Structure formats: C-alpha cells, structure tokens
C-alpha cells in the first residue's frame, strides 16, 4: 500500500490555505454568549450565579491547562502553541466575565427603561391631538 501523496491541485489549495488569514467571524455560535444574553432578560435567572459558575469552571480550566503547559518539553513547539492559545483564550474569557458582571451590576442599579410605550401626543389648542 502506497502512502498518500498530495496532488498538484491539493498542493495549490494548501498554498492558498497557508496564505489566507483565519476568519474568526465564522467560528459559529458561542453558547456562553447566547446563554448570558438570554439570562439577562429572563425573569428568575440568577445571572450573578451563572457568571460565578462559569468563572469557576474557567479558573479550573486555566489551572489544568497551565499545569499541562509546564509539562511540555521545550522541543514540543506545536503542543506549546496549542496550550498557550488555550491559556490566552481562557484568560480573555475570565476578563470578559468580569466585564459582563460589571455591566449587569450597572444595569441593575439603573432604573429600567420602559419599552414599547407609545409616544404621548400633546393636544393642540383646539383640543385635538396634533
């Protein structure tokens, strides 16, 4: 059995792939963003608790990935790069959760804006609405 070989067309596609930046907008739906967006407008959901649970899970993940990163040998560059990406992404999510928590606290402290209330028309001098 012969090992696989890259065809000329495959080589060309690979070259285009190497040259093309990764489009982060096509990563798909992020369940955490959807969950928090729905939670802030859903009565009875303890958003602060939801954030704290997520933060705890991310802190544990950060601990685990950092420990794994320390165990990687210096010559294992690919493994280091993958683990460092996980570390940076997890740290960013933790910072984002802090920001979300602050936004939620500020929104809760601000009087609610009433939505979908029709504008009040002022009566004209004749007593008919303008």
**Rg (CA only):** 26 Å
Uncertain spans? 114-130
Largest sheet: none
How many runs of DSSP E, i.e. beta strands? 0
Order of H and E elements:
HHHH
What's the total helix number?
Answer: 4
Distance from N terminus to C terminus (CA atoms, Å) equals: 86 Å
Which structural class matches the secondary elements?
mainly alpha
Mean pLDDT: 84
Tertiary shape: elongated
The fraction of residues in strands falls at under 5%
Helix content range: 55-70%
Layout of strands and helices, then pairs:
Blueprint: H1 8-19, H2 31-39, H3 47-71, H4 77-109
Helix pairs in contact: 3-4
In short:
The chain is mainly α.
Q: Keywords, please?
A:
mainly alpha, disordered C terminus, 130 residues
Structure characterization notes:
By secondary structure, the chain is mainly α. It has a domain at 29-109. 61% of the residues lie in helices and 0% in strands. It is built from 4 helices and no strands. The chain has helices at 8-19, 31-39, 47-71, 77-109. Helix 3 (47-71) packs antiparallel against helix 4. The radius of gyration is 26 Å and the shape is elongated.
